[in-house]
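Bumping my old thread because nobody answered last time. Still need a sequence for this structure:
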């Protein structure tokens, strides 16, 4: 063995911050540290089982995997030992000295501003449970050796949970990892075996690895090991034999989430493709759900053998909030990510799991209160569905929620079924408007006709809405129509037929003069009967890019083609009637440009030259 002196390393800066939070802003429920360490030990054994399929020598002639926990009251230590895969020296540095996860800084920043109970949830969810050891410990030792390392070279890691940790090469005869916690004096309750048992029964009963506690027989004066958990995979049991609490506790073990799931689905499927799935919908979104590098997906087993965490092969991105496991009898045991992507069985399983997930959400939608909790957390994610999954577009559309002009609230509570059932008798389409904000959408001049006719309009103000509506073409035979785009069918609502429209001489001259003034700035100038309070408005051509889509492209750094709007004027508005009578060409030009800027400002929310716009307003006000 290569003998090395003790080396001292500094923790990564993010780990220092995390440890400080752990020690000084404790979990409100300190016992969670043991659940975290047991979960890590279970993962290490799962990894050994998987790697051992192709490399049986990693077992080192020891087939029975287990987790063992012992206490030493005289020394004030709690020891958690597993015979799993273990760690190399470099693994120890990588895993116990750094947090190898993107978004760490933003996570820590948000954590510092949270109350203790929220910190508990976030720390567990972030998956840095090992560091929770320092909540109850003044010192932690980790002795570990990677499986199959025949020269007995192990690694000792030790730290007081401050700025540094030490690493030393040691002799370790057995594979796996042993963690020794030197408990703080005030944490001696965790040296009682009954207390350890109660924590295991509460959090870790369904871990498939036997968890043994060292007990002492007072009569025989000997120590012995006693298994304290059931060690049977919960998903393999009959649904009728599993309690609601058991489902909830398994979810918490699986996800490190402190909240109960809002709904779940447990299925045993036999036939050509035999598999078991247990899918959960969380009550709250994970902190990193919008981080493109965040890991999501299902935990994959094949014939009860752990294969991988966060397998993204079975659910699309728009369902990334779904947590759970899939246990297949058909996939090959030596599954790699590449094989999964190309495997026809995988595609069939994915199709089935998408359906199960959407049906689960459909069931949840029957409970308005619970579904609103879900929608407020995950609605934006689900809105990615229409663009990603055309096969299930109808199912997804039924799950979407909106607000509308009549709703008079920014909260998205209306389903498309509800909207269609309340459509106006003269209404042929589902009308909507997209904008930067709810307030902007609700106050758009495009709504004036619909308000007058008592026709409801969906108000879409999320950034993804414009993109989503490119794929959401119709619902129950009703086409969607943006009210900020040209639509001939609206003529029926105004009861005006453009071809037979009689326009006064003043208005006819106004249109000709306005077109001459604006030239190529606009596509067309015409009258409209859609407005009641506003003098003019701009519309996008039915076949051209919308204003909101142009904004999305621009924000993404994409080249946006020049938008040329249709300029519509309200001939009945007093301001239009007044401008019609202006003979001075220069003054007329100023008014027309002002009207266009006014309409563009209402449509886009900004102007290329707002100072010129303000100067023109001021000049015309002074002249009045």
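Sorry it took so long. Here it is:
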């Amino acid at each position: 063995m290569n003998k090395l002196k003790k080396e001292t390393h500094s923790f990564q800066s993010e780990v220092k911050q995390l440890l400080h939070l752990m020690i000084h802003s404790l979990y409100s429920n300190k016992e969670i540290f043991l659940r975290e360490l047991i979960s890590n030990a279970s993962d290490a054994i799962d990894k050994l089982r998987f790697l051992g399929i192709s490399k049986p020598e990693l077992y080192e002639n020891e087939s029975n995997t287990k987790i063992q926990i012992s206490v030493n009251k005289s020394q004030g230590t709690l020891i958690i030992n597993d015979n799993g895969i273990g760690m190399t020296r470099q693994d120890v540095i990588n895993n116990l000295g750094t947090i190898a996860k993107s978004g760490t800084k933003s996570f820590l920043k948000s954590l510092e501003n949270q109350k203790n109970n929220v910190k508990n949830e976030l720390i567990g969810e972030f998956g840095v449970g090992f560091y929770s050891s320092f909540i109850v410990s003044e010192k932690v030792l980790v002795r570990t050796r990677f499986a199959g390392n025949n020269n007995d070279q192990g690694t000792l890691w030790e730290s007081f949970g401050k700025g540094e940790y030490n690493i030393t090469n040691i002799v370790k005869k057995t594979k796996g990892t042993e963690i020794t916690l030197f408990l703080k004096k005030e944490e001696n309750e965790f040296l009682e075996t009954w207390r350890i048992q109660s924590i295991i029964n509460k959090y870790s009963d369904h871990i498939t690895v036997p968890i043994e506690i060292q007990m002492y027989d007072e009569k025989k004066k000997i120590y012995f090991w006693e298994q304290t958990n059931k060690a049977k995979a919960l998903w393999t049991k009959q649904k009728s034999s599993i309690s609601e609490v058991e489902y909830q506790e398994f979810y918490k073990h699986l996800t490190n989430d402190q909240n109960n799931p809002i709904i779940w689905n447990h299925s045993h499927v036999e036939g050509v493709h035999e598999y078991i799935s247990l899918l959960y919908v969380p009550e709250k979104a994970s902190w990193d759900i919008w981080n493109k590098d965040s890991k999501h997906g299902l935990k994959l087993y094949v014939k009860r053998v752990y294969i991988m965490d966060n397998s993204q092969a079975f659910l699309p991105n728009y369902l990334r909030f779904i947590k759970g496991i899939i246990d297949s009898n058909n996939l090959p045991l030596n599954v790699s990510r590449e094989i999964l992507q190309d495997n026809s069985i995988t595609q069939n399983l994915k199709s089935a799991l998408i359906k199960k997930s959407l049906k689960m959400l459909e069931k949840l939608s029957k409970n308005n209160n619970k579904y609103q909790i879900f929608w407020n957390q995950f609605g934006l994610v689900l809105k990615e569905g229409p663009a990603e999954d055309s096969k299930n577009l109808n199912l997804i559309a039924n799950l979407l929620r909106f607000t509308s002009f009549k709703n008079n609230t920014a909260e998205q509570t209306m389903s498309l079924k509800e909207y269609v059932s309340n459509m106006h008798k003269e209404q042929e389409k589902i009308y909507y408007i997209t904008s930067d904000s709810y307030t902007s959408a609700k106050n758009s001049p495009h709504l004036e006709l619909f308000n007058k006719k008592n026709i409801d309009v969906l108000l879409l103000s999320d950034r993804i809405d414009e993109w989503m509506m490119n794929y959401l073409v119709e619902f129950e035979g009703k086409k969607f129509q943006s009210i900020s785009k040209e639509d001939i069918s609206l003529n029926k609502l105004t009861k005006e037929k453009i071809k037979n429209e009689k326009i006064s001489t003043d208005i006819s001259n106004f249109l000709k003069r306005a077109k001459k003034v604006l030239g190529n700035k606009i596509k067309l100038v015409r009258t409209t009967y859609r407005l009641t309070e506003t003098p003019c408005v701009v519309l996008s051509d039915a076949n051209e890019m919308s204003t909101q889509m142009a904004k999305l492209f621009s924000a993404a750094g994409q080249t946006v083609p020049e938008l040329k709007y249709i300029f519509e004027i309200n001939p009945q508005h007093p301001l239009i009637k007044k401008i019609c009578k202006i003979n001075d060409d220069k003054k007329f030009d100023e008014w027309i440009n002002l009207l266009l800027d006014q309409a563009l400002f209402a449509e886009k929310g900004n102007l290329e030259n707002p100072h010129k716009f303000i100067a023109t307003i001021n000049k015309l006000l002074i002249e009045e």
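Confidence is low (pLDDT under 50) at residues 100-104, 117-127, 497-501. Let me know if any region looks off to you.
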